[in-house]
Amino acid sequence: MWWSLLFLLFLLVPPPVSAQTLRCGPCPVTGVQQGFDLQRYLGRWFEITKLPASFESGKCIEANYALRKDGTIEVLNKQMEERGRSIIGTAVVTDPKEPAKLGVSFSFLSPVGTYWVLYTDYTSVAVVYSCTDILRVSHVDYAWILARSRFPSEETMRNATQILEKVGVKECELIPQSKLDV
Ligand SMILES: *[C@@H]1O[C@H](CO)[C@@H](O)[C@H](O)[C@H]1NC(C)=O
């Protein structure tokens, strides 16, 4: 009963990014990258692995983050396919005291989704987590591991995966890297 009601709500009130993973309980409490430096985070990142999501069906996605004059961040997601589609979004730092907690929106119609940088060393890897509470009894989440190169080292990936495990994202849930390669 509860679950069917929840499911209905889930359909009626789409979360910021649709088709994320639905889990029990509220969003996990998690730390984010301390002293996050947006300037160093900007630029090009490759998507190495992620939780499955319908809004990003393409393979081999790369993202570019650039600062706009108005202080917002332009998010350009590009798919490296033949007809390489791209989508432009906007990210903002909502609280200057917590710069690693960004909000991202991909159209004026879509609500702002959370984009938390759990960890980054700026030069090799970034672990990004997005979570939305649904009535405090469940949550949907989404996660990415981004890297500056298309082939980060195994150790880098192992460390990044461990960070995601702390927020309840298991390694086996992530789309294997081989499926993302062209
Ligand atoms: C992985 O994590 C360990 C322990 O925190 C650290 O010593 C090591 O430098 C990390 N390796 C990479 C490639 O980030």
Automatic annotation (TrEMBL):
Q: Which GO terms describe its cellular component?
A: cytoplasm; extracellular region
A GO term (biological process) for this protein?
A: tissue regeneration
**Listed GO molecular functions?**
lipid binding
TM spans (from-to): none
Alphabetical UniProt keywords? Disulfide bond, Glycoprotein, Lipid-binding, Pyrrolidone carboxylic acid, Secreted, Signal, Transport
The answer, when asked if Glycoprotein is one of the entry's keywords, is: yes
Tell me which positions the record assigns to the signal sequence. 1-19
Intracellular or extracellular location(s)? Secreted
Q: What is its main location?
A: secreted
Q: A Pfam family for this UniProt protein?
A: Lipocalin_2
PROSITE patterns membership: LIPOCALIN
Q: Where is the Lipocalin/cytosolic fatty-acid binding domain?
A: 36-176
- On whether ATP-binding is a keyword of this UniProt record, the answer is no
For this protein, the record's CDD domains field holds: lipocalin_apoD-like
Protein family: Belongs to the calycin superfamily. Lipocalin family.
Q: What is the protein name stated in its UniProt record?
A: Apolipoprotein D
Supply the source organism for this entry. Mugilogobius chulae (yellowstripe goby)
Upper taxonomic lineage: Eukaryota, Metazoa, Chordata, Craniata, Vertebrata
